[in-house]
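Colleagues,

For the teaching module next term, I've prepared a clean inverse folding example: a structure given as tokens, and then the sequence designed for it. I'd like students to try predicting residues themselves before seeing the answer, so please don't circulate the second half yet.
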């Protein structure tokens, strides 16, 4: 699959490495320019392409947003994301790592309003980048792998993202729609930064959904 990644920090760089190792083609961009990605490109080889942000969006069948949430206004024009599967891996933190007060909205609701024609999936925002780097186990049965949660309203988009989660050695756990499920994935929630297996996660999500009513 062709993957675009916007953001080449710890999360974006780790995703690029794991996806390349899983035989996906990756185009990655950041706000520092193509030259700043040369070391990453040399490390990961020809399956990784350092590009400008607009090119990464155009390239990807799936596009990951791995930039700071507070910088989301720097994303390419919304029309470029139309009909793309977009994975929102951002969290609403200030530069000093305080949670931004979004009122009654979840962070993905705001991203969805910014990219109204994208097929948005919230995922990869609750897992620490070091866990992602070190604890994927494709050899394990899915129920024994660590969970990566996802929320969204487009079933096909979630299926495609779930496949990528499996490819890199984790297990996908669907927590519901973008609003109700997204609430379960915000900073401070019961699922945020939880390292639990798929089997444990499914039980936890069922309990949390019941509390939501």
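(Answer key — instructors only)
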């Amino acid at each position: 699959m062709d993957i675009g990644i916007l953001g080449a920090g710890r999360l974006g760089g780790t995703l690029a490495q794991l996806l390349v190792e899983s035989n996906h083609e990756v185009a990655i961009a950041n706000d520092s320019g193509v030259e700043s990605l040369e070391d990453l490109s040399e490390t990961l080889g020809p399956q990784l392409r350092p590009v400008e942000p607009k090119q990464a969006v155009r390239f990807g069948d799936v596009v990951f947003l791995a930039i700071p949430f507070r910088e989301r206004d720097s994303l390419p024009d919304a029309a470029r994301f139309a009909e793309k599967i977009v994975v929102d891996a951002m969290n609403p933190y200030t530069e000093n790592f305080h949670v931004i007060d979004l009122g009654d909205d979840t962070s993905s609701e705001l991203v969805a309003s910014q990219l109204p024609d994208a097929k948005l999936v919230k995922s990869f925002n609750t897992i620490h980048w070091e866990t992602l780097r070190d604890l994927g186990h494709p050899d394990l049965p899915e129920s024994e792998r660590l969970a990566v949660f996802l929320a969204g309203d487009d079933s096909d988009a979630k299926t495609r993202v779930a496949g990528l989660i499996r490819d890199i050695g984790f297990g996908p756990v669907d927590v519901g729609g973008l609003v109700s499920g997204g609430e379960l994935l915000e900073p401070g929630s019961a699922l945020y930064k939880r390292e639990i297996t798929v089997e444990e996660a499914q039980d936890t999500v069922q309990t949390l959904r019941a509390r939501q009513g």
